[in-house]
Structures are given as structure tokens and as C-alpha cells.
Amino acid sequence: MLLSPNKRAFIFLAADYGNIGDIGISHAQHKFLEKELDSFDVVSIPISQTRLVLHSIKKQIKPEDLVTIIGGGNMGDTYPDIEALRQLVIKSFPRNRIICFPQTLDWDSSAQSNHALQRIVKTYSRHPDIHVFARESITYNKLNEIFSEHNNVSVDLVPDIVMSTTAEALDTKDCLEPAGILRCLRDDQEAALSVAQYAILDDALATTGYTVEKTDTHAGGSQLDEAHCAKLLADKLSQFRAAKIVVTDRLHGMILSLLSGTPCLVMPNSNHKISQTWRDWLQDHPRLIFVEPEQFGDLTNIVNKLLSEPRGALTESPVDINQYNKLKEGLTRL
User: Phi, psi (5° rounding) for residue 286?
Assistant: First the structure.
């Protein structure tokens, strides 16, 4: 892999697989770096290529180059292969600033999880210039706890990086008139709704009289090229834009819905990443309602309220861009 002679800002573990939420993170991170580091070339390293190109990059990297690692929800023991690659990148560039873009940390009380946290602390704390960003306050508090004896590890809190961009910047197509309800719900290990709750939800959606279409933010595939990933993201945003409301228990289902300007009904998942993101950054957003389990009896009224909300513009970001100032400082204070 031959790099340009300019200063470089790398994005390691960039999504080249069909998780559209992760693709959104990769593209938003790329746009954020391009905007904040206009004198740098931004170089994305697909996650599937990490081990193949690492040796070549180590030979060419300069002290002024910046190493960033993808944000998301894969820090901890839930996705050990990705965490292992993150730690490999951290260990590979001891003389370059490392920026871990906003993450959710997963952990529990098990021995396996405790061992994973110990490895994180051991690897991260050995780097002399590392900045770790949490995307919600539960992760932020836990990171401060585990790194309390390691002042060299900088920990800060900023929103998920996808909320720093706009649907327009991600090539979303507008629609003449929205139609129907989009149901974007999990069927994996992070799903939290019971069979009875799904039935209540489906009944509430049926009473609207609108067609209910099922979709997901998982498209499948691996080692996808950048153009294909960009199209998957733009098409999903355009699909969200064309709906009257989106119903989801996916974090990026919620975020992409807000980017698209479409009102969103959000359900809990099995961990804290959706509920705490809502509490920290989005609980006052007019087009978003987060439904706790005890509120399911009122779903019909909640759905009707969202259907009456005005739509947003494709040029709006869900949060104030100043919420990213700490991340900007970490990038530019070289």
C-alpha cells in the first residue's frame, strides 16, 4: 500500500461489510476528519484489510500522522475480534496520536468480561498519547473508572459521530410525499422485546390504516467497495425519508431516522446504548419518542402523535455541532 507524501489521518477498522449503521459511522467519521483536518489526507483502512496492510503502513507512517479508530458499539467483549484488531492498531503505532472515535463499551459481571476489561486497560494505558471518546455517559463513567490510575489515557464524552453530519451530505434522495410506516426491528442477540410486546406494537401500527413495511439496517455482505457502501447508506436514508414514521430498536435506526427528518418511535434493546444515547443527547428532540416497557399500553396514542409531527429538513443535524468540540480539540491539538 503506497501512501501519499502529505500528512495523513487514518481511519482504521472502517466498515466494508453490510451493517449500514457501521457504514454510516465510517462515512461520517471520514467527513468529520476532512472538515477538521483540511491539511491532511484522510485514508480509510477497511477492517478486512487491517492485517494485510498494517506492516506497509508502519513502514511509511510519520510522527505527524494521526491514527483514528472507528467509533461504534464494539468495545469490550461482545465483539472480541474487533476489539482485538483495535488493540493491535494501538500497539502498532506507539509514536502517533491515537483517537478512538465515540464508542459504547459492553461489559457485565462475568469472568470473561472482566478479563476483557483488564486487557483493554493494559493495552490502552501503555500508549503515551491516546484519546478515548464515549458516545453516552454510562460508557464514559465506566471508562473513567477503569482508567482512573492511568492519567495518560484521555477520556471524554461526545455524541455518536453519525449525528455530526446530515442526510444531504450522505446523498439522501428526497421524496414528494411520505407513505406508510417503516418497521426496523432487531432479530439478534440485542433484541429486548417480548412476544407480547411485539403483538401490542403491531396492533398499534395496524390501527393507523397505513401500510407497514419491514426493513433492517443489515444488508449483508463483506469486503464491499466504498461506492457500494455509500449507496447502501444513501438508499437506506432515502427509504427512511419516504416513510411517515420509523419504528426501531436499533441505535442507527434512530439516528438515520432523525437525519432523514422522519419522526421516530424508539424501543429499548438489550443494553444501554439506545436508552442512554436518548437520555444524553436526544430526549428533547421533537420528532423522537423513546418508549419504556411500561408505556406499551399507550402505543396507539404515541404513534398518532408522531404521525402528526412536522418533518425535518435533510440539512439538519440531530445535535448541536458544538457537542463535538472536545473531539475537535483532540484531533487538532497536535
Answer: -70, -20
Q: Which amino acid is at 2?
A: L
Amino acid at 117: L
Locate 221 and state its grid cell. Answer: 455482505
Separation of alpha carbons 241 and 260, rounded Å: 5
Q: 9 in helix, strand or coil?
A: strand
Residue among 190, 16, 230 nearest 104 (CA): 190
Integer angstrom CA distances of residue 311 from 150, 177, 178, 288: 46, 11, 10, 11
Q: Please give the biggest Cα pair distance in the chain.
A: 62
Q: Judging by DSSP bridges, how do beta strands 245-248 and 153-157 pair with one another?
A: unpaired
- Tell me how far apart the alpha carbons of residues 253 and 40 are, in angstroms, rounded to a whole number: 31
Q: What pLDDT sits at residue 93?
A: 98
Q: Model-level pTM?
A: 0.95
| 165-197: pLDDT as tens digits | 999 999 999 988 999 999 999 877 777 788 899
User: Cα–Cα distance between 40 and 283 in angstroms, integer?
Assistant: 36
**Contacts by residues 276-279 (CB-CB < 8 Å, ≥ 24 positions apart):** 276/136, 276/137, 276/138, 276/139, 277/135, 277/136, 277/159, 277/160, 277/251, 278/254, 279/136, 279/137
pLDDT digits (tens, 9 = 90+) for 234-287: 999 999 999 999 999 999 999 999 999 999 999 987 778 899 999 999 999 999
Rounded Cα distance between 65 and 43, Å, is 11
Q: Is 90 exceeded by the pLDDT of residue 332?
A: no
Which amino acid is residue 26, in one-letter code? S
**Closest of 75, 101, 96 to residue 87, by C-alpha:** 75
Q: Is 261 helix (H, G, I), strand (E, B) or coil?
A: coil
Which run of H or E residues covers position 162? none
Please name which of 186, 167, 268 lies closest in space to residue 19, comparing C-alpha atoms.
Answer: 186
